[in-house]
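Students often ask what a holo structure prediction actually looks like on paper. The answer is less mysterious than it sounds. You provide the chain, you provide the ligand, and the output is a string of discrete structure tokens encoding the 3D arrangement of the protein together with S-adenosylmethionine.
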Amino acid sequence: MLILSCSLNTARGGFQNGGRKIIYRFNSSSTSRWKQRQKNDHYSKQAKLQNLRSRAAFKLIEIDDKWKLFSKERPQCILDLGFAPGSWSEVAKSRTSPDSMVLGVDILPCNPPTGVSSIQANIFSKQTQGVIRHYFDKHFKFKLNAVDKLHKDYGYFHNYNDPKLNEFETYNELFSSDDDVPIELPNRISEKFPVDVIISDMYVPWPRDFSNFSSSNLTNMPYFRLMNTSGVAVRDHLQSIDLCDAALVTAIDLLKPGGSFLCKLYTGTEDRLFEKRVRNVFRKVAKVKPSSSRNESRELYFVGLDKRDPIDKVTVFTS
Ligand SMILES: C[S@@+](CC[C@H](N)C(=O)[O-])C[C@H]1O[C@@H](n2cnc3c(N)ncnc32)[C@H](O)[C@@H]1O
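The corresponding structure tokens follow.
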């Protein structure tokens, strides 16, 4: 048995990792301080009043007002990485034309907002990219299964490594037609770069107790969520860099030439390195700290506009 953190005054829970039960405990004094701050926060109150899923919505609204990621003029394919509880997806849906497609991906279970599709999957898995591609393949009508095998077998708490892909067999398990009969997936994917805009607000979630899963544990109960960061700056930064790199790889592989990118980073020693990589992928790059982002938060947003073409992934990460 492994105990992750300890305090006399703690909240506790646990999850299974292989054969081992891992117990975690949160320091409840910092958790209640965080809850108190949420309660008094202007943007949290506004999010509640406007029926938005979280205060994060205001950061995207502010960034989109300036950088115009979304358009009502033409249908767009939007990919929201780390979408739960779903306020960025809500904003994307409301700022695009009705025939635009918005797909949210999150490692945690979460019901998407109206008009948004979602998959529960790990962005570090190559199979996740395959599923995203199929979703945006407009010649193909399907609905995504709410809880899929991908997450169960390759989910975050198990390991980051992909097994060898077995053509489309694995994807077939994830898709079903309206009457829930498994359907054949096409062997060819029509568009090489199907996505117009990628937005990523990913941050490693605190472990939650999935052994006793109930609807109240769903991530779309935003006002009852725990804070995401650990408060240990180096740890937060390095985990964030990994997720930003994963978002950038997804952008290299799936985003259209000319497409737009938004990515949250918890700042630290590798900021410059990440900025250089983003500049290798996009012609125009900006670093933004929206006013709705708390002063004490180390979060910073990278906006990448006008994706270059062609891009050599190895050069992006080694030059
Ligand atoms: C700060 S929240 C996103 C909030 C969201 N933008 C909103 O407006 O509601 C970060 C999310 O990233 C997700 N996440 C972290 N690591 C991930 C991974 N490897 N793959 C997919 N999602 C991940 C977390 O589960 C968490 O829900």
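The two ends are 43 Å apart (CA to CA).
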